[in-house]
Amino acid sequence: MSLQHAILGLLSYQSMTGYNLKKMFDESISNFWAASLSQIYRELGALENRGLLTSVIKRQSDRPDKRIYSITEAGKAAFMEWITNFPQKLSKGNRDEFTLRIFFGSNLSKEELIKQFQNFIKEKQDHMEKIRSLYQMSERYVAEMELFNSEEIYWKLVLRRAYLSIEMLIQWANECLDELIRQGR
Known about the structure:
The chain is mainly α. The protein has helices at about 5-10, 20-30, 35-50, 75-85, 95-105, 110-145, 150-185, and strands at about 15, 55-60, 65-70. The model has no long low-confidence stretch (mean pLDDT about 85).
């Protein structure tokens, strides 16, 4: 998946500004596809240059003008081509720095390893809280925009996957912690 496809997909719901697009990224797909505001604006420009988006300037008297982006028919076609063409391999290369550190854990003291696992668990627990808030955000989007009513189930499927993945990682880390503590006795 590319950032451009994520942008096209989100803009297929409704037209929005780059700022609103970033907000929607943060409130919907950031747990599996994050993007900075500068990356989003760069991609918006590239998509518009390719004719996949159009934009209009909305004048505002009390604030700076804002540019509102809309997906074109060519953009919808490009998005549909991407989403319907299933690749040979979905997952790209796997890189996990924490697991790499644990693999080389013999270079650390048990206390340091325990500390790193505790930090990992705390990070994952914080991530679970974010998933819970994203679930609430999806409820808000469904309530605010009729377009999202048919999307609700898909958003919830993805959030459930994220939640279960994080839950499994916490369980694994707790088992590792228990083993390290047992070995330290």
